[in-house]
Structure formats: C-alpha cells, structure tokens
Amino acid sequence: MIRGLTTLIVIAIIVGAALLGQQRFKQNAPAPAQPHTEEPGYAARDAELIETGADGRPLYRLNAEVIRQQPKDDSAQLDKVRMTYRAENSSQWSLSADHGSVRENNEYIELVGDVRVIGLLPGATDLAQILTERLSFNTQSEVATTDDPVTLVWGHRELHGTGLVASLKDRQVKLESGVHGRFTP
Asked: Whole-model pTM?
C-alpha cells in the first residue's frame, strides 16, 4: 500500500509540475500578432499653410476649412480650399476649390471640385477667371494645368475648351483643344 501511495504521489508531482510549466509557458508566450494599423497624422480646422520665397515674403497662403495628414503617402487632404498666390512677377492670383491635396514637399497642389483661379491677364484691366473641376498647380514653375473642360472668363469675354496650361508668372493662358468662345464689346 505504501508503494502504491508513493507511486500516486510521484504521479501527482509530475502532473502538477507539467500543469505549472504549461501555465508559465502561456504567460510568457508572445501575444498573437495584431494587424498593423498606421498611426494617424495630424488634423486641423481652419488651417493655414504659408510658403515663403527667398525674400521672406509669402509666395502663397493656403487656407483650408479642414486639413488631414495622410502619413502613408506624405500628403495632406484639404477641404474648402482657398489660396492666394504671389507670382514671381508680383501679380496676385486667388485659387479656390471644394477639395485638394498637397504633398510634403509642397511642389504640387491638386485641386478638385468647383475650381476657380482669379487674376489679371496681360494687357487686361478686368480680372480673369479660370473655371474647371480639376487643376494641378506646380508652385515651383508657377504653372497650372488640367485636362478637364475649362471656361475662361474675363470682362464680357468667354472661352470654353478642354485642357489648359496657365503660366501665372508669365501671365500666359493656353487652352489645349476644342476651343470656342463668345466676345461682346
């Protein structure tokens, strides 16, 4: 009987040690991998971005009702965008759109939805307006481009076309194709 009791005690010790070892392994085991979630970027309301020139004066002021950083592609998404731009030749331009995006290097500003560019064309006394749904603006070359339909309005004149290249520093606007217009005195 003592021999049977000793055997049971030894078995109980072995089973107990095995159970304790299993518990410790579970506690020390790494947690299951969680799916990688990207850190959110910054977000701001009524934000203003200012880019300055070599002279320290603002080249442009970009205002947005809401701005959200997208860390995945180093861009910022903009809602209700308004921008004032001082070209190299000191002419002033205003740009606005429903939405936009800007990359971290600030070289390209993409505008989408009810895009309006307002400024002074060479030899004109009336402000000119460029109206389109999508526009890309290169802040380094000061060139605005689109492949979308465009309306160019100044004074009582109106031109329609598809595609546009506008050099704001040179105050030159070129409609690419399908141009038709109406001129009234």
From this structure: 0.71
Q: Which domains does the chain have, with CATH numbers?
A: 43-182 (2.60.450.10)
Spatial strand order in the sheet of 92-103? 43-52, 58-70, 75-86, 92-103, 108-120, 127-138, 143-154, 157-167, 172-182
Largest Cα span, the chain:
123
Residue type, 166: A
| pLDDT tens, position by position, 60-80 | 888 999 989 888 888 889 999
Q: Could you report the per-residue pLDDT of 147-168, keeping only the tens digit for each?
A: 999 998 887 888 899 999 988 7
Tokens 């934000």 locate to: 47
In the numeric block, which tokens belong to residue 112?
Answer: 């989408």
* Cα distance between residue 89 and residue 54, in whole Å: 14
Q: Which of 85, 161, 147 is nearest to 120 (CA)?
A: 85
